[in-house]
User: Fold SpoIIE family protein phosphatase from Nocardiopsis sediminis.
Amino acid sequence: MNGSTGSTDGIAGSSAVPEGRLRDPIDMAFRHAPSAMIVADREGAIALANHAFSEFTGHAPDSAAGRPWPELLSHGDPARAWALHRSALEGRPRRQSGLSVTGADGASRRVSVESRALPADGDGRPAGVVVVLREPMRDEATLRVVTELRTENSDTVLWTLDLRTGRLDELFGPSPLGRLLAGDARDLEECLARVHRDDIARVRDAMEASHQGRDYEQRFRMFDRNGDERSLHARARFINGDRPRLIGIIDDVTEHVQLIRRLADRRRIEAAQGRQVTDLAAKLVSATTVEEVTGLLTEEFVPIFGGTTAGVMLVEDGKLRSSPAAAEASATVPMIDGRDAADTTYPMGAVVQDRQPRFFENRAEILERFPAVASILPYTSAQAWATVPVFGDRRVALGVWQVAWDQPHHATPDERALMLTLAGLAGQALQRVHRQKAELELADAMQKRMLPPKLPDFAELDISVRYLPARAGWRVCGDFYDVIRLPDRRVGLVVGDVQGHGVEAAAAMGQIRIAFRAYATNQGDPGVVLAETNRLLTETGEIVFATCGYLVLDLDTGEMQAAWAGQPPAIIATPEGYDVWEPETGPPVGVDADSKYPVTTRRLRPGDTLLMCSDGLVESADVAMDDGLDTVGAALRQQSDDVEGAATALAALAPAGRSDDIAILIARLNN
Assistant:
């Protein structure tokens, strides 16, 4: 093994050796080594090859001598072999698995190739390299096949990182994911440059821990060579030794992460829809008019199902009648409005009769089941329909709710169940509205009977009154007014507010108004009238009290004598301005039987307009009484010459809102 040319005993490049002469022990070891070995010069040309090489490849030593050893490899492996050769000359011995060598018979054989540099010669550079070719062991071959199958059609990279040099390699050659992520880059820093900026610090910290002998695991984002963001899961084991390294797997989990995000988005959307449904259902429960109920069904509920339009038809006297919202939303509604609710040739009539919903995914389906709709379809762009009964107690159909889509649509079981639930709530709301309407009509009639049916006429005095029930659900309330004709050309004016609402308050209001009339006709002093009324209320034993103001006006002199029991101040207005008059007040009547009520006197001049009102007009939780009085005074000034116009304007203005009932009495002394 002296590097000379020629061939002896299957060793390429060896000189002839006299028979019987013992060979150099190193030469003998090389020749009979169990692994295929070659020695190549710096340029890669084969100088020596042993017996195992000849047996493994079928190449005779003479035919192999002088050939660049990387060229013995097949397919695309020569380039990788040259990389091994250069690494060995640079002092970085490497082993590469998964290469193929071409034998003398043209067949390829899988090999693992390892290259190491020979000792340096006189110029300080390695004289060449020793290359060892090993046939994979059966277990190794099996592992390789399984690994290739595992990674061939999956987004996985098997990798190794030399912790000393920072060089990255794939264990069994380039994989599709490896090429997509890094291309030809093998330097760790080149690869880290593609890591998402929000993740790079965490990735580097974990890498530093691996230098201390720890295993590696991180999830991070990285941009591939196409610029697309990918989510990766990297795991590796630390391998100690002369060359400490990490060996591990990188899995592309982008689809998994995206799926989780989509699921999270879906849950957020479903949660938002759930909150929306809850809010809208609450609106149904609190709806007080038919228009509110049908408006919710035709407008606010439709987006939940992705529908285009919706309509509600109500059953009235055996006929289908459209709601105002439905009539505006669809051109086909007038074609159905007024039809017999028992006409089952149309979906709505069929739903009313058997109270079973109908769902049609397309036009063909609705035409197959209800051919009569062929005359209506040309007038609508809808392509799919859901027709649901609106029923109340005892499942009596009150109407039909129909949602339409402008493209074929399959209503899922969840959508169908939700539609039926909402339609049921709507039916309950409609029944409640009908009951409330009947109750309101009764309440209005009762309230009118409690108030004076007709006011007395006075040539010297124009009077206008208004009563406004609260909009907070109570129609029968305790506010009242009265005008009493008194002897000696005097007039008694009363405005009061009984505590509470409902029938009891109205009954108490009637009692107080009757007591006022009885005492006023016998007592000229308004303070005494209030005191007697107060004593009567306290002696009955009923827990009821009221604020009120009672004023006696002399039509000849304009003198006013006022006794107040916790009532808001009066307002006196002219076209030039207004004044807030605050008579001295006592406690509400019904609180203390011994209460006294002082009398305050003021003159009402001809042309002056007097306003007495309950606190519902000028005070609420959101409006202070002083602000309410100022607003009302300014409005009264504008209408001071017309008591009817002033009463109408103040009723419409209602600066404190309509959370409480309101009593208004306006009187103008004529010139």
Q: What stands out?
A: The two ends are 145 Å apart (CA to CA). Confidence is low (pLDDT under 50) at residues 1-22. The first strand starts at residue 7 and ends at 8.
